[in-house]
Amino acid sequence: MSNKRKHASYDVQQKLDVIERIQNGETRIKLDEGGLRRKRARTAKDPELEKATFNAFCEARNNGIPISGPVIQAQAEKLCKEIHGPDADPEFTVSSGWLKRWKQRHGISQVKINGEIKSADTVAAEEFIPKFQQFIEEQQLTEEMIYNADETGLYYKILHDRTSAMKKDETSKEGYKQIKDRVTMLFCCNWMGHHKLTPLCIGKFGSPRCFHNINMSSLPLDYDHSKNAWMTAAIFEKWFHQTFIPDVCRHLKSKGMEPQACLLLDNCPAHPPAETLKSRDGKIFVYYLPKNTTPKIQPLDQGIISVFKANYRREMIKSMVEEEKSVPIFLRTVRIKEALYLSESAWGAIKPETIQNCWTKALGGPITENPTTVEDDEEEDFLGFSPEVREAEQKMLAVHSSVPVQEILAAWSTIDDDIPIASSILAEENHNEDEEEEDPVPVPPTRTADDAVKGLEVALEYYERVGDKVKTLQLKSLIRDAKMRASRNKKQADISSYFTKK
After folding, report:
1. Which of 189, 79, 108, 90 is nearest to 144 (CA)?
2. What one-character DSSP code corresponds to residue 155?
3. pLDDT for 204-259, tens place per residue?
């Protein structure tokens, strides 16, 4: 029998054995697990030590303890001494080869740990949701009036650490040194996702070089600074009173609602006490989440910030491809000003449905509508004209009925005869039709996409200095479109152009 048939028959028999074990209720094993994908199943020389080491590994991972290779080796040596004692094989060592084979037998691989989900207080998060819903009903708030704000760090020059590559590409794992220039971003949005406030960017410098000759009000995002580019209590309080309150009042009034809102915050040390974060009338206030519940019930941490960062990386790669620059040259051109434009595009690309799903994941389904919304006045049914209006109408008809209709039409047809301008214009038009053009209009030169890029960049510099944010964003979009058109119009160089005559 050939080797292929042997392996095929072995796989079939192994799967049949697993199915029989599942039917008997002994265990639950998926047929596509790593151990059954291998053609040869190797067993351990010391099954007792194998099982004890694996049980210790599972117990540590259930408790959230990070486990590395040296930790597993040390645990195996300890268990070997406890199990066999003085009868242990003196030649047995927990080597790197043993560790590799042990991992292969159990389908264990190394992964990167991220997030804060293990440190979250699950009980406090579950108790907060009904308490907050009751608070909403007492305050008579709707989804449009409930906001959440949160900060995150953004390394605005770091590219993706993963790429697509061919199997035969020997340089597939080679990359560039990551530039860890960092800013802090503050995001805020309401439950329905209809109001996404302009993000706040916090850098290290009050006036970076890329902001020279630029009016700060023309920037696509709000900008502030601190010593370490971190959020501070002074910056947050300034943002709350000068940005959050006016924007929320403006949005709710446009929706026909009373300017009343609640801002959910976590217990970050940079967030001031709730007593200092109120509007003058007290209708716009903050509500703090319980401690250690941010990974569970803060809406922005349920995927909104992650989507923003993914959008930002995509926008940066698209910009690099459009400009046809190498990675080192492009990263040198990405300054805070360019990062603000990329962030504005990434934040604007987040859909309201995504925001609503994250709020639902964090705090449950939407709350019931309350009668606080000021509805538009409905039109009254038409009940006919009043007697006064009917009497005035009869008088007007009696006055005009004595004039024949033919006279009225004749008066309308000759109403412009007394105006000399009309006749002079008609005469001039008839005169121009008979004359020939003596001086031909010069044909303007044909402009290319590169000319459009240069002109638009000059206009962008002017509007950045003037401080018109809307025009600045429009010009930025036009520049990107012109660059794409310019790259499409370029022709590939002929191979003969690379050779020079001697």
Report:
1. 189
2. E
3. 998 888 888 888 888 999 999 999 999 999 999 999 999 999 999 999 999 999 99
Per-residue burial over 287-314, b = 16 or more CB atoms within 10 Å of its CB, e = otherwise: bebbebbbbbbbbbbbbbbebbbebbee
Q: How many whole angstroms separate alpha carbon 391 and alpha carbon 145?
A: 52
Q: Which two tokens stand for residue 464?
A: 């950045």
Name the band, by pLDDT with cuts 50, 70 and 90, for residue 345: very high
Polymer length of the chain: 502
Beta bridge partners of 185: 152, 201
Give the H or E element holding residue 460: helix 449-466
DSSP alpha helices (H): ranges in 349-447? 352-363, 387-400, 405-413, 420-434
Q: In what order do the strands lie in the sheet with 261-265?
A: 222-225, 200-203, 182-190, 146-155, 261-265, 284-288
In 107-161, alpha helices (H): 122-139
CA distance 132 to 364: 11
Task: Give SS3 for 206.
Answer: coil
Query: Which residue, 374, 375, 343, 360, is CA-closest to 193?
Result: 360
Residue recorded with tokens 């067993």: 43
Instruction: Specify the pLDDT at position 113.
Output: 65
Pairing of strands 222-225, 200-203: parallel
pTM: 0.62
